[in-house]
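Would you mind writing out a protein's amino acid sequence and the numbers that encode its backbone to help me picture the idea?
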Amino acid sequence: MSKTDLRVTKTKRAIQQAGLALLLKKPLNKITITELAQMALINKGTFYLHYADIYALYDELLATAANKAVQGSTAYPLLFQDSQDFVREFLFAESPALQPEQLALLKPENLRFAPDFPKVLLNIFKQAIYAVGKLPANRQNDLKLTFLLNGMISLLVNPTLIDRGDPASVDFTVQLVSRNVEATFPEFYGLA
């Protein structure tokens, strides 16, 4: 890596860290480029070399955090082996407690400035599944994954639909979703 690349990397990291630190203190729409630049020890012009505005920085921070969380899951290979294990891991696995920076990113008053985030998150999930190497990336599989994952994500973001303390509710959900997994990808379950 050249010196220029290293400086760019360090500058972007400083901007991102300053952005996260400010999000801990106030909503996104109350953060100014001036205060962010001061905190990152750069000038405003340098910020604009890397980001169009504070919302572009926020989009990148969200995508980076989502990518890190998605990549940390062990669920994706299970999609091609055991539909019930996949569903249990995807929907019910214990996830680590969110860090304060992650909570700040996910505050509703901040998320309202990222209308494309659901699509970004969906694409991150699809890429993690394609990375397993069992499913070719094509339009048909994109459609199948989009349909399946949108339903599963809706269960994650609306926790009142499933009583996680009731084994019968969890089992019903696992059975329902795993049948959809098998119907969507019958070739992996000897159904094709």
